Amino acid sequence: MTSAAPTKDNGKRPWQFVIRLLAKLGLSGRTLVIAAPTLWLLVFFLIPFAVVCKIALSEAVIARPPYLPLLEWTDDGRMIVTLNFANFQFLAEDTLYIAAYLSSLKIAFFSTLYALIIAYPMAYFIARSRENIRNILLMLVILPFWTSFLLRVYAWIGFLKGNGVINNFLMSTGIISDPLPMLHSEFAVYVGIVYTYLPFMILPLYTNLVKLDGAMLEAAADLGARPMTTFFTVTLPLSIPGIIAGSMLVFIPAVGEFVIPALLGGPDTLMIGRVLWDEFFSNRDWPVASAVAIAMLVVMVLPIMFLRNAQPTSESV
Amino acid sequence: MDSEQPIAADTKPWRNPNATPFVRIKNVTKKFGDVTAVDNVSLDIFKGELFCLLGGSGSGKSTLLRMLAGFEEMTSGTIEIDGQDMANVPPYKRPVNMMFQSYALFPHMNVAANIAYGLKRDGIGRAEINDRIEELLKLVKLTGYEKRKPDQLSGGQRQRIALARALARQPKLLLLDEPLGALDKKLREETQFELVNIQETLGVTFIVVTHDQEEAMSLATRIGVMDEGTIAQIGEPRDIYEYPNSRFVADFVGSVNMFEGQVIEDEHDHLRIRSSELGGDIYVGHGVACAPGQTLWFALRPEKIQLQRQKPNTEENFTKGTVDDVIYLGDISTYRITLDSGKSVHVTKPNIARYDEENISWDETVYLVWSSDAGAVLTS
Fold first, then answer.
1. CA separation (Å) from B380 to B241, B288, B376?
2. In contact, B180 and B214? CB cutoff 8 Å
3. Same domain, A129 and A22
4. What is the model's pTM?
5. Does B158 touch chain A (CB under 8 A)?
6. Which of A202, A216, B122, B158 is deepest in the core (most CB within 10 A)?
7. How many structural domains does chain A have?
8. Which residues of B touch A226 (CB under 8 A)?
9. A2 belongs to a structural domain
10. By the CB < 8 Å criterion, does B33 face chain A?
């Protein structure tokens, strides 16, 4: 049997010997498929993260690299581990960082809220459109992605600046006499974030709303609910998984956003992404910058964990 | 299939020409673009009836039901419910509730909240709502299921909760779209009797849409058979089955053997039809409005035919054929017989004895015999 099988297998499946070889090492095809993304995460996420943790616990020096090692070997064969928690202490003591975190969370929260308010009717409209129109509308939502994110943020400068499109239009129609100071303000940051992340809110909402059974809405109407009541008692509760997914996709990148506040924000727009950039490139204080990054991660992981726990109950819906 | 339940004559208001209909559908037409889904339908339904709209897919039965509920607007015509014109009355203001084919239970609400949904919209107090929920759950035999979510219920339980929810607001008219369609055969049989019981207890008028003729026969006080957007025939189950008015109805409700033939004798008390398909003459013991030489159809149900080995002594109402196939179904056996003309005929015979040595079997030549009032003469 073993003597006949190889010739037969070689003709049909030349890769068979690879599989057999791997099986001898205790690796099945399934293990390999799971191993690929695991390795990717390990190499490109977990190891860099460990490096960042290490730097966050070291001491800053003016050198290259600009921090001291954690482990040191003395001549008499002892290993000295220096863990420097001063960076985290510094974050807690300096009000700048706490203010920046709070400001980032606030901007991210309200951006998410505005995006939700704008995206929900859009997603609802697309989901309720005829099938052949739906794809065109979805295409229009995705279309901006064909242009670089950076270019689109720059384009907003052209709209919002003192002699930009909006001010010129309003002044030419005589509605205002002096240009509105829109650029370099928190308002501009909101516009930028909501505009940029709107598709990330629309798409999960659409996917959820398109699955909504029309009979549900008819049943509500049949039981005496007016359209508004139907929306708040049936449509909205059933779309909670979509709202959570969309909000996470907007909120998380918005907290750490750097480009939009840097280009559109004013000097008083405090966001943690900018603080991080300054710490790293202007101050060259890598340990504090790393500590800022880790603290930001913790700040963001908490709401995600909260939402993940909230999800199963709403999905059983 | 005995539909003759002990119903008093006054519970058959459709037999009384002076009775006022509860639901009045007049010349209703519905077009979707170029397609006419419902074509000039007029129909009167009386209080306390359990009316079945029976038809295949695309016959317009569901569209008619949805127009009664207010989910579709009529292209033309009027619908009156309890004397009130339903034109421009939105679904949430109609004295009508519907039980959906998919049940459409709200998955994010438990059983109690589902049943309470309509009551809350009507602004009924908490205590009264709770009483009503308890009462309805008792009615559908699901007491104690208040806290369950729809996905924790079986198909049959969901069906009953949907019924309870639809009955909660005490509608004057309950519309049921394929109410038993999603249940398996055994459960369907149990449930249809319960449905009839509930309907009789509450006295609510039911309009049921179904494609299942057996379901329609067992539920309905009257059946409206629909075909291509029109009503082909309205009648009590027995009328529809025994006295179909067209080949479509005869064929759609139950199975039937259809013979085409020409009138050769047309008297006021009888009719003689010559059918080459049958290979003999048909004598019908009652007069039919037709002309000599006219082509018409004779519809004969499989259970109305008797099989025998000897040639009968009559001149007509029999034919000869060869048994092609015998299908044993337990309660009955179905025989497929090929006549000399090549036409295939179905005959059913109840299996009275557990074992019958004399049973007619494959390849035998048999005579098919029926009485003079066994079949229906159809002119269309």
1. 16, 13, 12
2. no
3. no
4. 0.79
5. no
6. A202
7. 2
8. 92
9. no
10. no
pLDDT (tens digit per residue) in A18-27: 778 877 877 7
Residues A79 and A123 reside in one and the same domain: no
- The chain A residue lying nearest B168, using CA atoms, is A223
Per-residue pLDDT, B2: 45
Which residue is closest to A239 within chain B, CA to CA? B108
Residues of A in contact with B106 (CB under 8 A): 216, 219-220, 234
DSSP B312: P
Q: Do B106 and A219 touch (CB under 8 A)?
A: yes
CB B23 within 8 A of CB B79: yes
Question: What is the extent of the structural domain holding A51?
Answer: 10-86
Helix (H) or strand (E) holding A193: helix A186-210
**Of the partner residues A224, A233, A237, the one whose CB lies closest to the CB of residue B122:** A224
Taking an 8 Å cut-off on Cβ atoms, the answer to whether B90 and A221 are in contact is yes
Provide the 10 A C-beta neighbour count for residue B121.
19
> Which of B98, B102, B108 is opposite residue A213, by nearest beta carbon?
B102
Q: Average pLDDT for residues B93-100, to the nearest whole number? A: 93
State the alpha helices, DSSP H only, in chain B: 61-69, 111-121, 126-139, 155-167, 185-202, 213-219, 237-242, 247-252
Pick out chain A residues at pLDDT < 70.
Answer: 1-12, 307, 310-317
Residue A1: inside a domain: no
Report the percentage of chain B scoring pLDDT > 90: 63
Asked if this assembly's ipTM is beyond 0.90, the reply is no
Specify the pairing of strand B332-339 against strand B173-177. Answer: unpaired
What would the pLDDT profile of B127-178 be if each residue is shown by its tens digit?
999 999 999 999 888 999 999 999 999 988 999 999 999 999 999 899 999 9
Interface test with B, best of A213, A218, A222, A229 (most B CBs within 10 A): A222
